[in-house]
Design a protein that fits this description.
It is a single chain. It is built from eleven helices and nine strands. The chain is an alpha/beta fold and about 325 residues long. It has two domains: about 200 residues, Rossmann fold, CATH 3.40.50; about 110 residues, Rossmann fold (3-Layer(aba) Sandwich), CATH 3.40.50.1100. The strands form two sheets. Strands 1-9-6-7-8 form a five-stranded parallel beta sheet, with helices on both faces. Helix 3 links the parallel strand 2 and strand 3. The chain is globular, with a radius of gyration of 19 Å. The protein starts with a helix and ends in a 17-residue tail after the last strand.
Length: about 325
């Protein structure tokens, strides 16, 4: 990202384009769903069942994965944004969910989503359906293998491009992406720092969640679950008023990347993640010899549900 680098007088900047993974406008969930969908098919499921916020990237990609496999998809959408405009409720990812023929169930903010999802699964089983329950964000040890695989890709790409001291930065929410990245780095014996920029949970809560999931992912790999707690970093300084709530830093980051690199990021995850990375660059947080890699986890479809956040009528 040479233009952004020049604008911020930064060390070398790179971007891992997981918005280009190809499934339903792309995003991080493609990597997770590769493993989860395989397990669902192995178990003979006929329905993928999951949950997320109204403008969930995960739900959108799960619905598309179901369509590819000839399965049904049902999803619970939690209303986490207070008094949103009509476009938030019906445009962006929600429109795509319906285009992929997902059955959507809206529930109030603060709902115990895992319990509600299991209740729905019970109802479907009573109808002789075979649901495969996918946790929020696909963030369990099996799904996190997608980002272990990502580290294998990055290791090869960094070697080919001559990147010697990578420092990964990304948005961290349901924890699976960061857990998979850390598990892969640890299993391969790499000394790569990872900085997660939180989009929902307080720092201690998020770091504890990531650490636990990373070690369970290592166990699934057959590796000792011995990731040091100090390796897990989740900065909660860019969440603002809450999950999915716009911030000035997010708006600046989305516009800056669009206007300097021609790349779209989203208002919920990557926008806040990029805002965190920009703040780190301005504060001189990276060494001059570090190669900073932003892991773009997708989500630009949500922009169409957030025009109001950018002052659009």
């Amino acid at each position: 990202m040479n233009r952004l680098r020049a604008k911020l007088n930064a060390p070398r900047l790179f971007i891992k384009r997981d918005d280009c993974t190809g499934l339903a406008t792309g995003g991080s969930k493609t990597r997770k769903l590769e493993f989860l969908l395989g397990d669902a098919l192995k178990q003979g499921a006929d329905t993928l069942l999951t949950h997320g916020a109204v403008q969930s990237n995960h739900v959108r990609q799960t619905a598309a994965a179901a369509a590819i496999a000839g399965l049904r998809c049902e999803a619970l959408l939690e209303e986490r944004v207070n008094n949103p405009p009509n476009e938030y409720e019906h445009s962006g990812n929600v429109f795509l969910d319906t285009l992929f023929d997902a059955t959507l169930h809206h529930v109030p903010g603060g709902t115990a989503m895992d319990a509600a999802l299991e209740d729905l699964a019970t109802q479907l089983r009573a109808q002789n359906k075979k649901p495969y329950v996918i946790s929020g964000g696909g963030s369990n040890p099996l799904g996190s293998l997608g980002y272990v695989d990502c580290i294998l890709e990055l290791q090869k790409q960094c070697a080919e491009m001559g990147l010697r001291k990578p420092h990964l930065v990304h948005a961290t929410g349901s924890a699976g992406t960061q857990a998979g990245l850390l598990a892969g780095i640890h299993a391969l014996g790499l000394n790569w720092p990872v900085t997660g920029i939180g989009v929902r949970a307080p720092k201690e809560t998020q770091e504890t969640r990531v650490h636990g999931l990373a070690n369970r992912t290592l166990e699934l790999l057959g590796h000792s679950p011995d990731l040091p707690r100090a390796k897990v970093v989740a900065d909660d300084g860019f969440i603002g008023a809450g999950y999915g709530q716009p911030t000035e830093g997010m708006v600046e980051a989305v516009q800056m990347l669009a206007r300097n690199e021609g790349i779209l990021i989203d208002p919920v995850y990557t926008g806040k993640g990029m805002a965190g990375m920009i703040a780190m660059l301005r504060a001189g947080a990276f060494g001059s010899d570090e190669d900073v890699i932003f892991v773009h986890t997708g989500g630009s479809a949500a922009l169409f549900g957030y025009r109001w956040a950018f002052g659009q009528p």
